[in-house]
Q: What sequence folds into this?
């Protein structure tokens, strides 16, 4: 189900969309991953590209995970490589050369992130906006990025590490927070599921 603002076609999912296994929402766009590894994108880029229609590149095949940023998209392929497309004003679509063995991806405002099979976090794009990832963000099981410059990492031990913009306290992890199983990052807030 889709609801909310439809000023840029972000509620207009493609006809025939079926067998969806994952979804993602960007600034003015929606993404869906079908069970055959096909990515569908609808809506438009936000303010940067003046409403250009969003289309996945031909290389976005055999996709196993998707992520939507403000004005860009990421797709994780079954071979552990990442495909990025959309606005590249800060290099958020310039995937680092030789990035392989990726198991998870996340996209924020002009910022992209990947976790490798060894638990290493790799970032590209508007790095100064999000700041430096803390050294205790190790053995990462999941990540989440907010659109206002903060990130979260869920460690395999159930602890959360946060970094970046903390204007509303979104990067201050509550004392004693543990046994977390899932995380999410909003514009200026963070959520943890215990």
A:
């Amino acid at each position: 189900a889709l609801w909310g603002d439809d000023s840029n076609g972000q509620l207009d999912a493609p006809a025939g969309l079926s067998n969806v296994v994952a979804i993602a929402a960007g600034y003015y766009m929606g993404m869906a991953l079908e069970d055959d590894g096909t990515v569908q994108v609808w809506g438009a880029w936000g303010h940067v590209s003046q409403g250009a229609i969003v289309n996945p590149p031909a290389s976005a095949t055999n996709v196993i995970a998707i992520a939507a940023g403000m004005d860009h998209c990421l797709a994780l392929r079954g071979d552990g490589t990442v495909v990025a497309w959309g606005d590249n004003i800060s290099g958020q679509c310039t995937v680092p050369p030789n990035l392989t063995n990726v198991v998870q991806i996340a996209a924020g405002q002009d910022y992209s992130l990947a976790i490798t099979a060894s638990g290493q976090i790799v970032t590209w794009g508007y790095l100064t906006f999000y700041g430096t990832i803390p050294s205790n963000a190790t053995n990462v099981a999941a990540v989440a990025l907010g659109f206002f410059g903060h990130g979260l990492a869920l460690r395999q031990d159930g602890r959360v590490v946060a970094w970046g913009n903390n204007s509303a306290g979104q990067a201050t992890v509550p004392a004693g927070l543990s046994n977390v199983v899932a995380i999410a990052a909003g514009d200026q807030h963070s959520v943890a599921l215990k």
